[in-house]
Write a structure and sequence with these properties.
single chain; about 230 residues; 3-stranded antiparallel beta sheet; 6-stranded mixed beta sheet; ATP binding; binds adenosine-5'-triphosphate; alpha/beta
Length: about 230
Amino acid sequence: TTGVPLVEVIGLTKRYGDTLAVGGVDLTVLAGEVYGFLGPNGAGKTTTLRMLTGLIAPTAGTIKVLGGRPGSPEVLGKTGSMIESPAFYPYLSGLDNLRLLAEYAEVARARVDEVLELVDLKERARDRFSQYSLGMKQRLGVAAALLKDPELVILDEPTNGLDPAGMRDMRRLIRELGSEGRTVLLSSHLLGEVQQICDRVGIIDGGKMVAEHNVEELRGEQELVIRAQPLQA
Ligand code: ATP
């Protein structure tokens, strides 16, 4: 990493009526690192990532992403994200789905081939989206997030629901993004997963950051996380 903060979050808070979904999260993601946001279901991961991408507004706190405001055109142009399961046209091929998005984003067509290669979908690019496995659908979502060649990639539980092969492929892809020098912020509820693919990990529980570690230091936290929810890779 270069040590330059790409994401700087202070006191981030989101309330829904009486529910405190996120309660004062501080978070810094440095350029070039793969940062894992680890926590059990309902911990506040998705809500935090939705605020970081400008999909929802915080109740309180400050967020700086790539020096700007989440959701602003400058920041959106340099960030790629997959927060919800990506929506694609089922009867179009993966290739045509990405071409449509590329056209909309004014991205060169050649980039579509590059991202398909990156996510290992080149061979299946002409198959209908509806025929893809869940893992392939998720990788197409990552491909879409990469179209603009973003500095920062934000992925909400990218391996959630995948079978072992799908998980393995997605993890390999994320490691590749990291070794290319891209900055990745991802969420997960699997300790083994963030140990495999992340440089640094923040643990969130009940809407609060309860710990932050370099991945080598994480072993001691096993118990803490397991208490929150049984975890397995
Ligand atoms: P998951 O892995 O299940 O997505 P998470 O860590 O992403 O979990 P969030 O989805 O951020 O957790 O939810 C945090 C808390 O906020 C939960 O208690 C959830 O029920 C609540 N919450 C989230 N979104 C809303 C909403 N739109 N309205 C009301 N409560 C919400």
